[in-house]
Design goal:
By secondary structure, the chain is of the alpha+beta class. The protein is about 30% helix and about 30% strand. Helix 3 crosses helix 4.
Amino acid sequence: MNTDSTERDFIPYPTNRVVGTIADAEHATAAVEALVEAGFDRQSIDVLHGDEDLSRLDPTGTKHGVIERLQRALMRTGGPAEEYKHLMHHVEDVRAGRFVIMVLAPEREGRTIAADILNAHGAEFVGFYGRWAWQGLTPNSGPAAAVGATEQAYASRPEDIPRLFVEAWNKRDPDALASLFDSDAEFVNVTGLWWHDRVSIRKAHAYGLEHIFSSSTLTVIELRVKHLSDDVAIVHTAMTLSGQTPIAAVRRPGTRKTIFCFVVQRVDGRWKCASAHNTDVVPNMETNVIDDDGAFRAANYRSGGVS
């Protein structure tokens, strides 16, 4: 793919641009062609790829003048720090050899079309940079979405899977959550309920997020990635869950800690979850037992205690 941008100048801040990352050169080329066909001027589209373009996003401003350094300083302090974090995500994408596409789209309708086209071509981390504000953009139901953008969450690296899972959970968005999984993915929850495909995973979480976890907050507290190959990895994630819906005599359910195991694979430049298993952490216990009444209880054989 020819990644020569129309202007090779420094990008102090991608104001009024829709930005997304595409891992595959062929898909990136197709996205640019679709943008031009949709009416965007080729000069309003930047494709960043490689070391030369990395300097154009210079996140520290050290390679450029006083004004640029001031802008970077503003982005790293106070309110704009969040925007600096998003910009750094794109810097890492360029550094990793991916294609970051920036589309000048100051009008709302143009941003929607640009975002839908990027999403339809497999772009990840699609968002709009206003003036010191970043907004994530997911596929909508407009005409441009007919290209085939049906999924809402995109992972560009294995560790994005739990992050996006938590984000979808806290937004009560079962569609975004289910889109992280392969169509034939497996999912085992904390009680051993076992779902065998994306449709079942979505249905189960739609019910849970409405009835059991409607006011809950899921938080990642620790994450480890083990790569089995370039395209397969296991992501273990410790999480806390608070705000579960009261039931029976339990009027204020306490905070639970769980260990989530995601088996993920990269397909067409995008990471998806093939299998997930969630396990509750029971403090000070070693295993589980079934008591004389048939009740399921946690046990510690060293202390001789049961829950």
